[in-house]
Amino acid sequence: MTVVTMPRKRFSLWNVVFYSILVTGLWVTFQRFYAGIGAVTNLSDAFPWGIWIGFDVMCGVGLAAGGFTLVAAVHIFNIEKYKPILRPAVLTAFLGYLLVIIGLMYDLGRPDRIWHPLIMWNPKSVMFEVGWCVTLYTTVLFLEFSPMVCERLRWRTPLRWFRIISIPLMILGVLLSTLHQSSLGSLFLLVPHKLDALWYTPYLPLFFFVSAIGVGLAMTIFESWHSSKAFNHRLDGSLLESLGSVLAVVQSTYLAMRLMDLTHRHAWGLLAQPRPENAFFLLEMALIAAPVVLLYQSRVRNNARALYWSAVLVIMGFMTNRLNVGVTGIETASGVTYIPKWTEVAVTLFIVAIGVGLFRLAVTYLPVFGSHEAVATETEKVYSQGKVESRAA
Amino acid sequence: MANAILFDSTKCVGCRSCESACAEKWGNPYNEKIAAEEKLSSHKLTAVVTKGDKYIRRMCMHCMEPACASACPVGALVKTAAGPVVYDADKCMGCRYCMTACAFAAPTYEWEARLPKVRKCNMCAERLAAGKPTACSEACPNEATVTGERDALIAIAKARMAEAPQSYAQAIYGLNEVGGTSVMMIGPVPMAELGMPGKLPTEALPAFTWRALEMIPSIVTTGGVLLSGISWITHRRTEVARAERNERKGARQ
After folding, report:
1. Domain boundaries, position B36
2. Which of A68, A140, B19, B101 has its CA 20 to 30 Å from the CA of residue A329?
3. Are β-strands B118-119 and B108-109 bridged in parallel, bridged antiparallel, or unpaired?
4. Percent helix, strand and coil across chain B, each rounded to 5?
5. Is residue A96 part of a domain?
6. For all residues of chain B together, what is the average pLDDT?
7. Which residue among B165, B185, B204 closes a domain?
């Protein structure tokens, strides 16, 4: 599978949806930067963070976790069989981080000062750590992604450099990811008085890290399924099955840790009281537990569709968790009810749509699927064929 | 000398002189409509809130170890030795982590501005530096709000509570809440009944994140060594396997 062709349908329903999201997004973007955050959000002094943080940033970073998980598997643990899905995962991670930065440009009151933490230090701040992690890891992801572009353009010298710095770069990337994923949990350690006791635990950073590994694997399964549908290439069943097994182990470890933590903190009693948080918590737990039950069955792992839906459940459980920690779990303490304004949702959809669009462009024009060498030679073949044809014409 | 403010709800008559003095100091608009808002906002950095026949003031509590200052990634919020927690708008990038972090919902935001800033009480740091009391203390006709040295104010509070025990709930709000605050409150009922957050930890909030942050150096060093080691071993294993294959090939020929 090498040369990928874009599907040629011009007027599909999805295209209409896609372009309406883009147009609406552009309009809201104008509003946001012309009239201020207050004009397009339901945020308030009592509720200063909404879905732009809870979803765009906290879920965005998590969904990009497939990058560091697979980089660690392939380049550090040297598990060669995962190589074919490494590049799509690195691409997703790179795009994911770019989208998180775009999301921050909307949410920060002064996006023009996004670079301030680089020169104005406060090492006691988790947000300072987050800022540095975003900057450094996006740079690392750019370097991990660049070889795809260099191969496409057949720039050999930079490719040699990338090979030299490859291993230290990969190790740095894994470390930065570990810090960044967990620090998003650490952010909420500062609010024991606000975050509901079902979620507030000193282990938040650890839980954020472990669940990020799980969702990274799930996202890889999710993407493989969609790109195989969109670009008509075959799924490697045994490869995905083995990803499913690893995911089963990670997800069940995560679930066990969460349950042990709740027991240890004597938090189960909260579920007996009539509280609005409980429903969201139970939904989250169901979404975390269901794929565990599914993924431990080899029947499910060996069925592409069933495996795909298990991955979707993992992703939904992850998003529910991040939104619960970032939004739902804070509402009662804030004393106000926050429901995102439609324009907030429009921006989120806009950013996701940009991501999907960029991903499609990248897999169409860059050697993303398949092993490096095979792609390189295949591209050259295609090139020379093109030359022959044009000469013949 | 660390400055502090003592607010005594039993002495407050709800005249809102503190509100108008504060608005005047900051150059904020002040009229009847704003007086009636009774909550903090970017144009109202202190608010007198009516609770039945009692009054309470809301403002930045100027924590001894402020969560906002530890939260701020660029160090725009700083606890000064003189007592006030001050804000430098030129550093702020508007992440609003300070607002999420604050236990008292004190920092507010200019939501409608194109280039917004955080707004909050600065305990009149510039007036204190000049040896003057805060604008609100100066304006108070009834000594419901007084400025002074923190220990001295604690002594005053205790004296008032001892003198008229039937008029006071026997607790100083801010003595131990979130590790202590520079704005302290006493009144006829516990402050939680007048709308202050009730169940706050007595440990300063920055300690909760510091316990995670202080692990970073060891995670980076152990992780770095571990990952390098694993990568060296796994790659070496492949190399050895390849060399052995080649050797076998060579022996056969």
Report:
1. 3-204
2. A68
3. antiparallel
4. 40, 15, 45
5. yes
6. 94
7. B204
Rounded to 5, what percent of chain A is helix, strand, coil?
A: 80, 0, 20
User: For A260-268, which contacts have Cβ atoms below 8 Å and span 24 or more sequence positions?
Assistant: A261/A201, A261/A203, A261/A207, A262/A198, A265/A197, A265/A201, A267/A197, A267/A198
Distance from A230 to chain B by nearest Cα, in Å? 35
A-interface mutation test, from B199, B209, B210, B235, most A Cβ less than 10 A away: B209
CB within 8 Å: B73 and A127? yes
Q: What is the mean pLDDT of residues A327-335?
A: 91
Instruction: Identify all chain B residues contacting A126, using CB atoms and an 8 Å cutoff.
Output: 71, 97, 209, 212-213
At A389 the pLDDT is 45
The answer for B178, left when phi > 0, alpha when psi is -120 to 50, beta otherwise, is left
Tell me how far apart the alpha carbons of residues B152 and B80 are, in angstroms, rounded to a whole number. Answer: 19
Q: Do A77 and B213 touch (CB under 8 A)?
A: no
Q: Chain B residues with CB inside 8 Å of A174's CB?
A: 223, 227
Same domain, B70 and B38: yes
- Please report, to the nearest 10 degrees, the dihedral formed by the alpha carbons of residues A288, A292, A293, A297 taken in order: 150
| CA atoms of B73 and B70, how far apart (whole Å) | 8
* Virtual torsion, Cα A172, A176, A177, A179, nearest 10 deg: 140
Position A10 scores a pLDDT of 60
Average pLDDT over residues A247-260: 96
What is the predicted ipTM? 0.90
Say what the pLDDT of residue A375 is. Answer: 43
Q: How far is A123 from chain B (nearest CA, A)?
A: 8
Q: How far is A53 from chain B (nearest CA, A)?
A: 10
Domain count, chain B: 2
What token pair was written down for A378? 């295949």
Q: What is the pLDDT of residue A149?
A: 92
Could you tell me if residue A140 is inside a domain?
A: yes
- Residue A123: closest C-alpha in chain B: B73
Q: How many CB pairs below 8 A link A and B?
A: 182
Residues B151 and B239 in one domain: no
For B223, which of A108, A116, A178 is closest by C-beta distance? A178
Q: Which candidate, A211, A37, A141, A334, places its Cα nearest to that of B104? A: A334
Q: Which residues contact A76 (CB under 8 A, 6 or more apart)?
A: A167, A170, A171, A174, B227, B230, B231, B234
Same domain, A219 and A118: no
Does the residue A393 lie in any domain? no
Residue A304, min C-alpha distance to chain B (Å):
30
Tokens representing A24 are 């609406």
Per-residue pLDDT of A90-131, as tens digits, reads 999 999 999 999 999 999 999 999 999 999 999 999 999 999
